[in-house]
Please model this.
Amino acid sequence: MYKTKPTMTGGCQCGAVRYALFEAPESSICHCRMCQKAIGAPFAAFCKVTSACFVWTLGEPASFQSSSAAERHFCHVCGTPLTFRYLDGDAIKVATATLDDPASVPPTKNYGTESRVPWIDLIAPGRLPDTSTTDSASRTIVSYQHPGHDAPDA
Ligand SMILES: [Zn+2]
Ligand SMILES: [Zn+2]
Model:
């Protein structure tokens, strides 16, 4: 469908909305209060590419204009937050955790640090008791989460 192979792909939890990036993104964290709310987490991790290097490959996301300057896309089926972009900008940021391989894009900058939660250091390895998902599973769980990689012909 696309002439060049994407640099990275990603999508929402249910798989209704998928996207592709066509350049190496700039990875950052935003601690601002608006990103905290929009992502539903103590901070947001984003990967920025130019608008020309971003494409929706499956589904139509819903959007919310969170200020006079910006909008955020999300999946209307499962609610996963997907993007942030300035309305007058030439770039789009995808939520890093929605990439198929978020571990490959460590952040290089912090933004919105005035709202950084004061306990952020506590989540570093070794600071709190660690429990893995398999350690804590008390029953068999069947995942309905999209497996995360585009089908060969998608
Ligand atoms: Zn979804
Ligand atoms: Zn922010």
Q: What stands out?
A: Residues 8-136 form a domain with the Metal Binding Protein, Guanine Nucleotide Exchange Factor; Chain A fold (CATH 2.170.150.70). The chain has one domain: 8-136. The chain is about 5% helix and 30% strand. The first helix runs from residue 33 to 39.
